[in-house]
Amino acid sequence: MAFKDGILEGVDYTAARHMGGKITPELVVLHDTASSLQEGSAADYLQDNDTKVSVHFVIELNGKLRQLVPINRRANHAGASSYHGRKGCNQFSIGIELVNPGKMRAAGENGVTWFGSTVENGHPYSIEIAETPEHGRGMWMHYPEAQLDTLLWLLRLLFSEVQTLRDIRPHWYVSPGRKVDTNPLFPLDHVRSYILGRDDPAEEEATALSKPVGADELAIVSANGDRLNLRRWPSFNPNIIAKIPDGTTVPVLRRGTFDGRTWLLVLYAGQEGWIVASYADPVTYAPAR
Ligand SMILES: [Zn+2]
Question: Which of 56, 193, 207, 275 is the most buried (most CB within 10 A)?
Answer without folding.
Answer: 56
